[in-house]
Specification:
Layout: H1 2-66, E1 75-77, E2 84-90, H2 95-113, E3 117-123, H3 133-148, H4 150-162, H5 175-185, H6 189-197, H7 202-215, E4 222-225, E5 228-229, H8 236-247
Parallel strand pairs: 2-3
Antiparallel strand pairs: 1-3, 2-4, 4-5
Domain Thioredoxin-like fold: 72-241
GO molecular function: isomerase activity; oxidoreductase activity
InterPro entries: Thioredoxin-like_fold (IPR012336), Thioredoxin-like_sf (IPR036249)
C-alpha cells in the first residue's frame, strides 16, 4: 500500500511539473506573440511617420519651388531688393487668414516701409464649397487691382478682412457691399462697379486657384519666408508673432 501511495505521489508530482512547464511555455509563447505584434506596430507606425515626413518634405519643396517667383495673382508691398521675402496664400473667407491679417498687417506694412521685407499677398478660392464669397471677393480684388492699381487694391484687400463675413453666413457681404468697400479704398465707382457686381473676373480667380493648387497649397494661410514654408507656431497668433520676430 505504501508503495502504491509513493507511486501515486510521484505521478502527481510529475504531472504538476509537466503542467508548470507547459504553463511556462505558454506564457513565453504569449510574450513572444505580443512582442511580435508590438514590433510590427512599431514598424508600421514608424514607417507611416517616416512616409508622412517624406511626403511633407516633398510637398514643401514643391511649394517652395513654385512660389519662388513673382505671381501674376496678387499684390505686393515693399521693395524688390528687400532682404526678406514673404508670400502669403489666403482665402478672403478664411477666418485664420483674417486673424493673421489682423495680427501682422501693421507690422508688415511698417517693415515694408523700412525696406526690410517684401510681402506678396496671393488670394485664391479654397472655401467656395461654403458659398461663393471667396470667388466674388477675389474677383472684386482683381477688378480693383486691374482698374485702380496695387495701392488701392492693397487697401481694398485690408477692408475685405476688416469686413470679413463668417463662414456660416458668407452671403452677408453682398456684391453691392464689395463695390462700397472698393470705393472706400479709393477706386472710382464707375471703373469697378459693374465688373464687381457681375463677378466679371471669375476667370482670374480660377487661374489664381489653379496656380495655388499646382504649387501644392492645400490650406490657408500658407506662408513662405525667403522661399521656405514658414509654420513656426501652434496657433495663428503664435505664427504671426514668430513671423514678425523673424523679420524684425
Amino acid at each position: 500500500m505504501a508503495s502504491d501511495n509513493s507511486k501515486a505521489t510521484a505521478r502527481a508530482q510529475k504531472a504538476a511539473a509537466e503542467r508548470a512547464a507547459q504553463a511556462k511555455r505558454e506564457a513565453r509563447r504569449r510574450i513572444l506573440t505580443i512582442g511580435g505584434v508590438v514590433l510590427a506596430m512599431v514598424i508600421i507606425i514608424g514607417g507611416s511617420v517616416a512616409f508622412s515626413l517624406v511626403k511633407k518634405n516633398e510637398s514643401d519643396k514643391k511649394l517652395e519651388d513654385a512660389a519662388s517667383g513673382r505671381s501674376d495673382y496678387g499684390v505686393t508691398i515693399g521693395p524688390d531688393d528687400a532682404p526678406n521675402k514673404v508670400v502669403i496664400y489666403e482665402d478672403f473667407l478664411c477666418p485664420y487668414c483674417g486673424e493673421l491679417e489682423k495680427r501682422t498687417r501693421d507690422d508688415l506694412a511698417e517693415l515694408a516701409a523700412d525696406d526690410k521685407v517684401q510681402v506678396e499677398y496671393r488670394p485664391f478660392d479654397l472655401l467656395s464649397q461654403l458659398g461663393d464669397y471667396p470667388i466674388r471677393a477675389a474677383s472684386a480684388f482683381s477688378v480693383v487691382l486691374e482698374k485702380s492699381g496695387p495701392e488701392v487694391a492693397k487697401k481694398f484687400h485690408d477692408l475685405l478682412y476688416e469686413n470679413q463675413p463668417s463662414e456660416k453666413d458668407p452671403g452677408a457681404v453682398t456684391n453691392d457691399d464689395l463695390v462700397d468697400l472698393a470705393v472706400e479704398a479709393g477706386a472710382k465707382e464707375a471703373d469697378v462697379a459693374d465688373a464687381i457686381r457681375n463677378v466679371s473676373n471669375e476667370d482670374w480667380v480660377t487661374e489664381a486657384t489653379a496656380e495655388a493648387q499646382k504649387a501644392g497649397v492645400s490650406s490657408t494661410p500658407t506662408i513662405l519666408l525667403n522661399g521656405k514654408v514658414f509654420d513656426d507656431g501652434r496657433t495663428v497668433d503664435d505664427l504671426a508673432e514668430n513671423l514678425i520676430a523673424a523679420l524684425d
